[in-house]
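[Q] Does anyone have a clean structure-token version of this?
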Amino acid sequence: MRLLARTLRYRVGASIPDFPDGPVIFALWHNRLCLSMKVFESIRRREPQARLAALASASKDGAFLSSILQNFGVQPVRGSSSRRGPQALLELTSWAQKGYHLAVTPDGPRGPCYKVHDGIIALAQITGMPIIPYSCDLRWKIRVKSWDRFQIPIPFSPCAMTFGTPIRVPRQATDTDRTQIGEQLREVLLAGTRGE
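[A] Here you go.
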């Protein structure tokens, strides 16, 4: 993954912006996980003490992802909307209190693709942490025949990395507010996907 990421041609100006003080929640589509560690390593170069906890499903696929996360120095948290959801939310909140950034794929672990589930909105509401939308647009890629059409970069592909402005969920947000914020997050993430 590291070697592949080094071959890509990142678009000029697609740099990592200044984030709000304190930990944040990174949101990215499930099919763009392949380059997520490239982003975290870039953040760690700027902020050597940065630590990250990432949500991985409680399935066998999640176990495979967890081993990759650990290899990159990321703390995996196992759970999803269908299995261990409340426990995972509690664990993520605990890591946030320790100063960790968090990472969540809002359409994972089983889709539908590009649909924002409630978990990330609830996490932001409970922790008070801002959500930072992140996307990467690969011009040349392989799409796996899976529910999320997982993307694998082809070496030397142009890659545009984009970050949205922080999205906050007020503690007193209503169900209607959370739905609207979820739609806002979806629109921002979709803006970085060439309308796929």
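[Q] Thanks! Anything notable?
[A] The mean pLDDT is 88.
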